[in-house]
Amino acid sequence: MLDFPLNKIKGIGPKRAELFAKLRVFSAFDLLFRLPRDYMDYSKATPVCQLVDGQNAAVQVRICGAPRIFRMKGTTVLTVSAQDETGKLSLKWFNQPYRSAQLNIGEIIFACGRVVRKNGLAIMNPSIGLNLPGILPVYATVKGLNQNAWRSSMLSAMEYVWDGIGDPLPRSILERYGLVSLSLAIRHAHFPVSREALELARKRLDFENALLYFTLLELQKADRVRQNGFAFDTSGVLGKYRSKLMFSLTQSQLRVMEEIASDMRKPSPMNRLLQGDVGSGKTAVAIFALCVAAANGKQGAFLVPTEILAEQHYQTLQGIFGTSVVLLKGGMRKSQRDEALMRIKDGTALVTVGTHALLSEEVRFHDLGLIITDEQHRFGVRQRAAMLEKGARPDMLVMSATPIPRTLSLILYGDLDLSVIDELPPDRKPVKTSIIPQNKRADMYRYLAKQALEGIQSFIVCPVIEESETVDLPSVDTLFSQLKREIPQTRLAKLHGGMKESEKERVMRAFRAGEIDALVTTTVIEVGVHVPNACIMVVEGADRFGLSQLHQLRGRVGRSARQAYCFLLSGTQNGPENERLKTMTQTSDGFEIAQKDLLLRGPGDFIGTRQHGDSGANGILQTLDVKTLEQAGNAAREILANPGEEGERLIELASERFTLSISDIAMN
Ligand code: ADP
Ligand code: MG
Questions:
Q1: What separation in Å is there between the alpha carbon of 296 and the centre of ligand 2?
Q2: Which of 161, 298, 499, 508 might form a disulfide with 28, Cβ 3.0–4.6 angstroms?
Q3: Do 314 and 266 sit in the same domain of this protein?
């Protein structure tokens, strides 16, 4: 029932189905679990005098003039004035002249849309009616598929599959934790009758997701505890490694290396989480662990989330391991790939660094003793498990630069021992961070251009690649063309996940070589990219990012002794979002920032599968609070203690939901 194909649903023709397919929505199920990106709350009318520029709002107004139509640059503009007791405004439509017939002087109507305060107050392209539409969902979409199409398709889909939706959660769990049924949750997640209903719906969906996630985590943990692995000999490794380094290790690095060495000496497999702020030198620690493995004739695998990062680590590792390092990533030529696979299999590859390509079944190791995953929060539990299966009870080191608040890390990584690097290499200066108001924006880019002439490089991060019709966000494409005009002497290049791999690599290499002054990019550069000469980080639409994400981005600069700057541009002037951004100017302590993020945005940003696994219901851990997470963890343990039929079904569902296909993980 749930895999009911889209084109069989009333109102979804082949054209629309094709557009949905672009978003990888193929069935009624896919559709129902594609939750709104946002909501527009038109459940009550705002007095005209309280309208805020840029927001979506509903007003109840009396039409107080005759509609006027005029032409402007090929567009038909229809305007009418309207008012309530608190003020006047105009309603404006573009290319919808027929609407004038619906506007009668003296009539009282509801109008809903985007408020613009420019040459007077107006609502743009409002929908109008005699009733309030309530809370409307807004979906992430593609060109040609507008929000109305989404909404009507969703409503049809609900009619078709309603009986088949069932509920994977046992009734006892629903009752104990006060959760609504799956069908109600889905309905209200799309078309909530109230804010409260919406909250209950999302809580239920989040809870289910978290429960399944913890079920897998617990299973995996139980599995690992029972095993016995390899006891490494670590003697002499540290001394040799230190002699190869260009710097002296910090006390913190030395401490965690000893913690790792002590784990590796034991026969039981290491399960350790290494946390350290951006730039704290985790890679150096990871390489030490790889040295231990190599010294014992065991292979090590270094799993990283992006190809750019894989390239970068590959270069670093060659400096230590020479030709015994192999790189494996998507988009390699077949001959190259075959050679890499062969060397991994025959064991001549002592160290393999790679992206998700490493998870592929084809990758077989000769004798895999150690797995390191960088920026683990980007990988799902399933992926950890897939990797572990490639060796005979290998040691595992998980690294994370997202400082995870202690409470949360206990829940999410409860199965791992924790090591923390809590100091930065000595020569680092904190990055000077400021929030740039829109009227200083041009000045800031001029400054950036001037710095470029002195050889100082910049990153300019945008929230999206291309402009879209639904969200008004700075995009890489638009900004790139704009800056080309405004600062023509600056050598600019684009870098984003939509580009071909070879192209990305070429750009990154040129940037590293100093042939490009500024990269206009997305968060692809968020993780791990290391270019010491880049000292300016500009974030456009900074209010769209989580603080921890901003902290990660900021960590890309300030990697040398030179003073670095981070400029945050916010879409709104004085909104609460800017209050949040202020935290960034006040501290550079990743843990403090993470704590604040957790408070303000909930734990979604810390949970891996969310960002990339947008198949099915994975995209929803966002609103979850820590208490719910704890409850879900308890529920998982409870079910596993005594699984029964229902438990088995949950386990199955868990493995399905947290399996990410490789395309899910492609960079944004
Ligand atoms: P992380 O992965 O924790 O963000 P990296 O391992 O990429 O940080 O380290 C950032 C930079 O600092 C690298 O260029 C690395 O060579 C350098 N580095 C690491 N440890 C030290 C140290 N103890 N002293 C000086 N530089 C260091
Ligand atoms: Mg790193």
A1: 25
A2: 161
A3: no
